Amino acid sequence: MSVAETTQLPPGGVVDERDKRVAPLELFFDLVFVFALTRVTELMSENPTWEGLGQGMLVMIALWWAWSAYAWLTNYIAADEGVERLLMFAVMGAMVVAALAVPHAFTDDALLFAVAYAIVRWLHIFLFAEANEDVDTGQAIARLARTALPAPTLLIVAGLVDDGTTRAVIWIVALTIDLAGPLVFGVRGFRVSARHFAERFGLIVIIALGESIVAIGAGVSSDLDAGIIVAAALGVVVSCALWWAYFDVWALITETRFRQAQGHRRILIARDVYAYLHLPITAGVVLIALGIKKTIGDVDEPLKTAPAVALFGGVALYYLGHIGIRWRIAHSLFRGRLVALLVSLALIPIGTEVDALVALALAAALTSAVTLYEAIRYAEARRQIRTGAAH
After folding, report:
1. Does one domain contain both 181 and 261?
2. Could you give the CA distance from residue 244 to residue 260 in angstroms, rounded to a whole number?
3. Which domain holds residue 84?
4. Sequence-distant (≥ 6) Cβ neighbours of residue 157 within 8 angstroms
């Protein structure tokens, strides 16, 4: 199936143009998530090992699931009005505390992170239930609470455990329970404003990409020289190529399909495409940010295994999310990005043998090649899609 074919209207498809837009409070709330993402990168940077990567990704998943839950909440209620506004401020305060604890979420600040995170998750259920007046949605919230309430409790238990391995296992069990909730108990009863939902998740991708830009500055620990300047430029190239891959046409195609869907089918797309499949996209960017930071920190030495995995594995994970989205909405493979994913994985061992600057240049070349190939291969379809979106 071609790119153009994914935009065809389904039989009887109707696009709802009356959807709400993202409110200023939501953007304000997202700034806390920006801070949390920088702390995840810091956690992995302080411990650039397999253990550090694993811990970083566990924290990333927890933070993503909390943010995604509030994206559903603010999609449904006017969270910037009345008591809900004050409660959202309280959530932001708890999230800031959790973010501060992120670098040591598996050591000294394990309990502090868990308690702050639990407050964020529990307030979500309270806010949703307090502001809701629909019976079907109320039942959906009750089903969601079956996993959203006990899972953070397990993280508190993990914070009370001294053994690191046991703590990690409890984390994995807790996150599995939390993420499995919408799959096991379903999402029937929720309502979704498609334009707002797509816009909110698109903005969080931009925020994640912003973290890769921040990593450029964070990685500079010495005087600027030619190597650091070239590495910074290559980091920008990677970020721009990733932005292009998502926002040039693919975000438009995905949103079109989403807005065309009606009833429960729309809710399922919201769950699968946005809540689940945007996680590898965002996590991939965070890993790439770590790889860029480590490259700029020492451009003339090969990357260690974990940073090389972060750089090239992050690119692969980013494209994996795109491939999953295309399969979910169009039941076809994203062949070009599948090839890029495989090439990126193949570059991991090379990244540990060549200078870090060369490794980053390879990542820049790969992501730019994907952009160039798709811009040429689908030039006419791209023109039609972007022209149609403009009107």
Report:
1. no
2. 24
3. 21-191
4. 170
